[in-house]
């Protein structure tokens, strides 16, 4: 990370500030690095910083973990959907069983109706034959009438017997006529009932087939979605494993470089390296925001103290305490405009931070960045705003930027 030059050569902060331009370029480089990492290719040209490569790998890791989480959520949803579909299928199967029983009953009724219809047709045929025979016999005169019976009777007992026979024949004819009429009516009624049963049979069969098809389509769609989600999750898990291995290698390389730098005489103070020019260097593994704050602090570390400096504009020949802190924090986008000391009492989040802690009250503000003190009081003591140790704590409010 190159140091920021003297602030009086900057363009207006809100429009063409170098930190904004560098952030945009870094975002493009990280995006390209992530793509290269995910495809297993080399890091793109221009991504010379090993720390940038590590951050890109970590970003890709978070993206893959989010994708795996989304796939797991989808799998859970499809699993729940399959369970719901299975319960629905069980309910439908119960209904289908009832409809199948109804179909069986209808089929039985159809068979019974056809048998009954056949019996009625046979009865009608027999009745018609009997009636026809009686009519023919009556027409041809083969059957006796009342006059012939009286004249031909041999005594009173014989007369009674023959009259009784005539009444029997008459009753038989009447019954045949009635049976014929009733049989015809029953045949008509039974034929209508048979037609209705057949129509009901067809409708029930159509309902059963339609419901079975719907359940089969629902299960098929859910299973396809589940299989797709399982495949995506397995693929992302495999890529995550490869990325973790690559990230481990990058971190080992960064540690080796840090050890080599320490061995070549780059002095270490409190675990933080300082270059030969006396400027603070970010420690290995420091977030990009911390490196930006340190670079901005280096740019104004030796500029003079000017009361109100850095408040009218970030471009100034010198800075007071709050102007200095505002300038360094603005480099990482942690503030958008210069702030006075008292404003920092409610800035950020309460308490000390992991990387950056601001100490503020109404009269003064200073901060610690990665173990280094950045304070205009130190400038008066040693000619630079950076110092190790010291600083006022009593009566100061501790604040820190979110996540840092």
Explain the overall architecture.
The protein is an alpha+beta fold and 404 residues long. Among the domains are: 89-228, Orthogonal Bundle (Helix Hairpins), CATH 1.10.287; 267-400, Alpha-Beta Complex (endopeptidase fold (from Nostoc punctiforme)), CATH 3.90.1720.10. It is 65% helix and 6% strand. It has eight helices and eight strands. The strands form two sheets. A six-stranded antiparallel sheet has the order 3-8-4-5-6-7, sandwiched between helices. Strand 5 and strand 6 (372-374) form a beta hairpin. Helix 2 (18-39) packs across helix 3 (50-140), helix 4 (146-152) packs across helix 5 (156-263) and helix 6 (288-300) packs across helix 7 (321-331). The longest helix is centred in the middle third of the chain and has 108 residues, at 156-263. The chain starts with 12 loop residues before the first helix and ends with a strand. 21% of the residues are buried. Residues 1-35, 40-48 and 261-277 have low confidence and may be disordered.
